[in-house]
Amino acid sequence: VQLVESGGGLVQPGGSLRLSCAASGFTFSDYAMNWYRQRPGKPRELVASISNTGAGTTYADSVKGRFTISRDNTENTVYLQMNSLKPEDTAKYYCSRGGSYWGQGTQVTVSS
Fold first, then answer.
1. How far apart are the first and last CA of the chain?
2. Neighbours of 104 (CB within 10 A)
3. Could you tell me where the beta strands, DSSP code E, fall in the chain?
4. Cα dihedral sign for 31, 60, 107, 19?
5. Distances (CA, A) of 61 to 6, 45, 112
6. C-alpha dihedral over 98, 3, 49, 78, to 10 degrees?
7. From CA 35, how far away is CA 102, in angstroms rounded?
8. What is the pLDDT of residues 4-57, one digit of tens each?
9. What's the pLDDT score for residue 21?
10. Cβ-count burial of 108 within 10 angstroms (0-12 exposed, 13-18 middle, 19+ buried)?
11. CA 80 – CA 68 distance, rounded (Å)
């Protein structure tokens, strides 16, 4: 199993970023996928989840209405669209399969 995140960076408050996670080494369409984040000095937290078909999604209350998780099973990729970003969204974001397999993470910094 390999998960490779990309798309992080520095963005101003109110801005947007789209994270991508390219998956390989397993049948992607068989598994739900998750995005987690770890803010400085805090434990890793679940941000969003998507079912294997993409029909079902769930979000942490802190990002509901601002973030959207999606997937493309033809491209073996899961996305996290992040809008209206706040400084408290600053974190390293990780793609995960079931909390057992993790990517290396991508840093998101929200600052003016």
1. 37
2. 11
3. 2-6, 9-11, 17-24, 33-38, 45-50, 57-59, 67-72, 77-82, 91-97, 101-102, 106-110
4. positive
5. 24, 11, 24
6. -150
7. 10
8. 999 999 999 999 999 999 999 999 999 999 999 999 899 999 999 999 999 999
9. 98
10. buried
11. 6
Portion of the chain with pLDDT greater than 90, in percent = 98
Q: What pLDDT was estimated at residue 54?
A: 95
**Nearest 5°: CA angle at 109, between 106 and 112?**
160
Give the torsion sign (CA, 52, 55, 61, 67): positive
What was the pLDDT predicted at 96?
98
